[in-house]
Amino acid sequence: MANRFAIQREDGFLLARFGLLSKKEVLLDSLTCLFTNSSLLSLKENLVRYSESIGEAKERIPVWNPPPWTDSNSRMLPVVDFIHLCNWDDKHAEICFWNYSQAYAADLTKTGKQSEINPWGIAILRCDIDLQRAFLEALYDYE
Length: 143
Prior knowledge:
- By secondary structure, the protein is of the alpha+beta class.
- The protein has one domain (4-139).
- It has three helices and seven strands; from the N terminus they run E-E-E-H-E-E-E-H-E-H.
- It has helices spanning 37-54, 102-111, 129-139; strands spanning 4-10, 13-21, 27-36, 79-80, 82-88, 92-99, 120-128.
- Strands 1-2-3-4 form a four-stranded mixed beta sheet. Strands 5-6-7 form a three-stranded antiparallel beta sheet.
- Strand 5 and strand 6 form a beta hairpin.
- Helix 1 (37-54) packs across helix 3.
- The protein starts with a strand and ends with a helix.
């Protein structure tokens, strides 16, 4: 579950942080992942189309300032290659993050083999549809 998010843009990538905060603003859980600029570019057409189909956020998601990075929470972060989205009842939503091996995809191309590339699931976030809407708006709002 997530009810907050924060995006930080860096050279060549975007850091996305999602949090589940209690009513008293206590951080109960969090997820952090990376998007390369090239992945964001390849995802843009489908994500913008989906975003247009669900419309803009109806309620504002509170701004979240995640805890700062420290040595104790430093770790290798998953890189997202693909996002799958769904929603139901114009209230609930899911954001699914996947990645796959670029090396494996390149090897398949070189050999000419017809084979499926199986993605690895990173996380499934359940959230309010307005958080999903706001996240999609924030991904590409810098242009």
